[in-house]
Amino acid sequence: MINARLYPLNYEGIASLLSISLYNQLVSQHTIDLDAFDLAKTYIGILIHLMMQPSDRINTIDKAIFVALYISDKIHVNLNMEDIETIIEDPAEIGLGIPVTRIFQVVASVASTCPDASIRFFAYHLVRKFLAFGNEQVKVFLYQELLDGCPFPSMKTAAIGILKDQIDRSFQDDKSVFASPLVIDVFFPLIFRVNKDWSQRPSEFWNDYSHVMQALNLYYYLLLKDKHNKTAIWTSQNISKMNKEYLTPIRNCLDTISVVPINNDNRMYITQIDLLRDSLDKVMQVIKKGNLSGF
Fold first, then answer.
1. What is the pLDDT of residues 85-101, one digit of tens each?
2. Total domain count for the chain?
3. From the Swiss-Prot or TrEMBL record, what is one GO molecular function term (predicted)?
4. Tell me, what's the pLDDT at 223?
């Protein structure tokens, strides 16, 4: 018999034990009465609470991530906007619940802030899994959440790469919104932003360097991929707008922050500036070639 005074059990301890038991049943192929989706709806509230532990509680967070990832491998659904507005039962808060969108936000937070690189990696894959569960309307909404609403710069940068993969797959489907002008109209304003402080405060620029490189890579990819101008990326208006509002300011910023003495402390920065200039040159070469060929 458990003595509550001598052997106290808090919610996190019970949830961890349940997660371990659930994981063991799944791995050992024991029969579970619920299918994977029902299983997720039943236990996700517990898993989310484990994920929301302080980032140093790795031995708690990892149980939730691995169980959620394992369950996600067994789920085959096509969620719509009504589905993701559903409130999931929260066993820790009687009478309250967790919105499905909150689940996505918590997983993205773990993928961005957990000090353990392996857990960040698996949480990142869980973010991809979550995106795959939605129809295109849901996907657009969740990408907007990552690119604009997410408070973590590393996840915003990673989201550009995930979006690029989504666009690449969508070019095989003429009806997909990810191979349409929506990409330019909705996502470009969220991705291609210039910080006015870059030139005055180079540290701000270096904080955003990875994001700038990912953004340029996406633009370069689309210029090469969209040979039939499905996204309207090759219209003169969009080419001119990108050059004026993003490419030229980036180049001017590089010209400003590169005027510093070269020494061992900033040699790495000089290399990164060269890489970024090379990316800008590649973009401009593709644009020039496209203009000559009739775009």
1. 888 776 665 556 788 88
2. 2
3. ubiquitin-protein transferase inhibitor activity
4. 97
One domain for residues 239 and 115: no
- pLDDT tens, residue by residue, 248-272: 999 999 988 877 655 556 677 888 9
Q: What is the pLDDT of residue 6?
A: 46
What is the DSSP track for the chain? ---TTTS---HHHHHHHHHHHHHHHHHTT---SS-HHHHHHHHHHHHHHHHTS-TT-HHHHHHHHHHHHHHHTT----B-HHHHTPEEE-TTSTT-EEEHHHHHHHHHHHHHH-S-HHHHHHHHHHHHHHHHTB-HHHHHHHHHIIIII---HHHHHHHHHHHHHHHHHHTT-TT-GGGSTHIIIIIHHHH----TTTTT-HHHHHHTHHHHHHHHHHHHHHHHH-TT-TTSTTSHHHHHHHIIIIIHHHHHHHHHHT-S---TTTHHHHHHHHHHHHHHHHHHHHHHHHHHTT-
Domain presence at residue 98: yes
Does 198 lie in the same domain as 127? no
Give the structural domain span for 245. 173-294
Among 76, 105, 134, give the residue marking a domain's end: 134
Whole-number average pLDDT of the chain: 84
38 and 125 inside one domain: yes
